[in-house]
Amino acid sequence: MAKTVMVVDDSASLRQVVAIALRGAGYEVLEACDGKDALSKLSGQKIHLIISDVNMPNMDGITFVRELKKNPAYKFTPVIMLTTESQEQKKKEGQAAGARAWVVKPFQPAQMLSAVSKLIMP
Amino acid sequence: MDMDDALQTFIAEGRELLEDMEAALLGIEHDPENPETVNAIFRAAHTIKGSAGLFGLDYLVSFTHVVESVLDQVRAGELAVSTDLVAVLLTSCDHLSDLLSWVSTGEENLNDDMQRKSASIEQRLSTYLSGSSVAADVVESSAQEADAAAAEENDVCAAQDAAVSDQDLWHLSLRFGHDVLRHGMDPVSFIRYLATLGTIHHIETLWDELPAADKMDPESCYTGFEISFISDESKETIENVFEFVREESSIRIFTPDSRREEYIRLIQELPEEDMKIGEILVRCGTLTRCELEAALSSQQQSDESLKPIGEYLLEEKAVQPEVMSAALNKQKSVKDARPPEASLIRVDAEKLDTLINLVGELIIAGAGTNMIAQRSGMPDLMEATETLSRLVEEVRDSALNLRMVQIGATFNRFQRVVRDVSQELGKDIVLKISGGETELDKTVVEKIADPLTHLVRNAMDHGIEAADIREAKGKPAQGNLKLNAYHDAGSIVIEVSDDGGGLSKEKILSKAIDRGLISDGSGMADKEIFNLIFEAGFSTADQISNLSGRGVGMDVVRRNIEALRGTVELDSEPGKGTTVKIRLPLTLAIIDGFLVGVGNSGYVIPLDMVVECVEYGAWKESGSNSSCLNLRGEVLPYIRLGDYFDEASSGQRRERESVVVVRYGEHKVGLVVDRLMGEFQTVIKPLGRMFSRISGISGFTILGSGEVVLILDVPGLVQEAESYFSEHEKRAISA
Question: Predicted confidence band at B145 (pLDDT cuts at 50, 70, 90)?
């Protein structure tokens, strides 16, 4: 059974590139354009990994992770946050919210894949 | 050409190799010591294995691998060649031939019969594999499972395991943080990812932190892992596997022993920059940036007075002690080579030269003033000039000191030369440097670099033999080249020595006679013969390489060194190596001189070379006519300077002749003079071109009185006295 990864980012092109890379590596991909959208799309089904941007309209990534962790179904779901180098403060907030893995933007699809495969195997 | 054609080529090639292997195996019983034979057998097995791998012939790869492992031990000298071993290897050879036939059938897997045969020979071979019980176990188990479907795969695995010694293992010590699961991190997934970077050789799960069931929090992680890991990746890459859990977990990675040499080499190759110790270790790859940061922060947190970071890392076992000491040496050599920038002033070399010249004039003027003061007999004036001349002396010394530089920087440049040249020559040579702190005049240092390069290249090209010849001679395969410098009797000696094959006297003699340099070699001392290679147009190399050996080398070296008022000599022991000694004056400008009178003239002898002065009277009485004196039982050749320079005798003065004993290198010679006139600061002025060929004189100087006196060329005189003495001796013997 292929594992499912949810990609949350307001940039459609970024979602697309990441999705292509992940599908190519054998993952199922679910897309959401912001935190709110993502939460609404989560209805208890098994998600193995979430990749989320920090800066998004409606609900930012950190609030999203905080909300996510309140749901027992996703308490143990690993989250990779997308960040830019300068966001040290955001990183701390994210860690407090429960996100431990970070990938710095801009990244190559291969970098993303290697980060993902450290956390889950396809 | 398609794959099938290539496969046919492989089978044909394999058969040829097996024939060679068989022939060599039959030969090795008669000549077990010949490394070339063992190499040939090893090469055959190795080539078959490599090509078989390309075609995915796993059964062939796994079987050849075991054969190769055994041969590797023979090659390394860990396993002696016995009749039994040769028998097993011959059987293996036959079986390989059968396997090649099997390849031509095109079947993907072996049939049961062949598999059993492979397994049984492998088992016989594995009994020879010492020290790796793992290999034996696995091979055994693979033999039992030979019938199982997975046998093939297991064999490959077994073969790989067999090749792994503890030397090549990374050791990972992982203690995951209690919260990792809560953060969505699954330790197992990291280990799975780790397995994509190499092979996990062994893994042990640690439960010791696991509390009793009632106290256990099911959401916490209590496990740790100890992993032996085989990988060619860098430490940084391996560490990065755990980047997401690093902060809350303890991740320690120990490098394999086999990497140690590589790290040390990388450290030595780092550019000569002033670096912190941590930086050096990170640059060579033995320490990762994260490890360094962790160590630095805990270094700062500890209450005790700051421990050096190096010590801290050693305690943590983050770095192997050998690597650490290489890094410390590197740091030290860099520091030695370039003192802190802040305390340096860059000065135009020309300004310095002007200063030295002026100091020279000052000394002459000072000597003049001194003489006038002496003549006037005024005590006050004499005292004042005394102080003055002492100060002038100090000024002279520190002015000369400005020009002194350590030879270390020049020596260190040769590390690179040696590395490059040894790669070019395909030899394994290390350079050892000592005496790098020895100081000498900057001009000398600049001019010595070229001749030194030549000598170093020569030693590497002609001196040190190729690794296989060295091993055959029972020497370590790695050649040693040494650069050493030290002070000796007012001169500096630079030695270039190698542990190569030494010079061949016969070859040199025949060549010298060939070239018309000498008429016949009888009665020549070894040293004299060796030093013939410094004659123009001499080269003894069998093969002319593009490095050296065009026959223009050594005479140019000698000319360059003689231009610095130095000498070069060579000593060699067949089979042991060659040492070239360059002897150079400390400075080119000002020396302490010893003034002597001969007839109506004065001569200056460099004071560093004067050993003692003895009255000549006693020997004169005895009326001995020989060419040497008996100095407390020691044979001392001597020269009467009066006769030598044809000085008109000044009559009665000769009553009190003295012998000044001078030393140059290992030779002592007596110079008979009329008067001893004491020490003098001497500014060396070079002789004009016209006089440069006069023997016995190296320069002149001006005394305070304005009188011009000549400076004796002690090395030249010593040589002359020695040769005169030995000729005289020969005549005496033949008479």
Answer: very low
Pick the CATH number of A4-119 from 3.40.50.1580, 3.40.50.2300, 3.80.30.20, 1.10.10.10: 3.40.50.2300
* Chain-chain contact of A118 with B183 (C-beta, under 8 angstroms): no
- Chain A residue at shortest CA distance from B247: A100
Given A77, A98, A117, which is nearest B193 (Cβ)?
Answer: A117
Do the beta carbons of residue B646 and residue B616 sit within 8 Å? no
pLDDT tens digits, one per residue of B189-220: 888 888 888 888 888 888 888 888 888 888 88
Rounded mean pLDDT, A22-51: 88
Strand partners, A51: A7, A80
Mind telling me how many Å the CA of B301 is from chain A's nearest CA? 22
Please spell the DSSP secondary structure of B402-459, one letter per residue. Answer: HTEEESHHHHHHHHHHHHHHHHHHT--EEEEEE-TT-EEEHHHHHHHHHHHHHHHHHI
Interface membership of B196 toward A (CB under 8 Å)? yes
pLDDT in tens, B234-282: 888 888 888 888 888 888 888 887 777 778 878 877 776 667 777 788 8
Of residues B111 and B29, more confidence is placed in B111
CATH superfamily of B406-585: Histidine kinase-like ATPase, C-terminal domain (3.30.565.10)
As annotated, the residues of chain B forming the CATH 2.30.30.40 domain(s) are: 590-734
CATH fit for domain B3-163, picks 2.30.30.100, 3.40.50.720, 1.20.120.160, 3.40.50.300: 1.20.120.160
pLDDT band with cut points at 50, 70 and 90 for residue B149:
very low
For the stretch B477-489, what's the b/e string if a residue is b when 16 or more beta carbons lie within 10 angstroms of its beta carbon? eebbbbbbbeeee
**Which chain A residue is nearest to residue B190, measuring alpha carbons?**
A118
| ipTM at complex level | 0.81
The two tokens of residue A68 are 């996510």
Find out whether B499 and B478 touch, Cβ atoms under 8 Å: no
Inspect the interface and report whether the beta carbons of B183 and A98 lie closer than 8 Å.
Answer: yes
Q: Tell me, what DSSP letter sits at residue B488?
A: E
Determine the topology of domain B349-403 in CATH.
Helix Hairpins (1.10.287)
Shortest distance between the Cα of B501 and any Cα of chain A, in A, equals: 55
Q: Report the residue from A78, A115, A121 with minimal CB separation from B184.
A: A78
What integer pLDDT is reported at residue B589 of this predicted model? 64
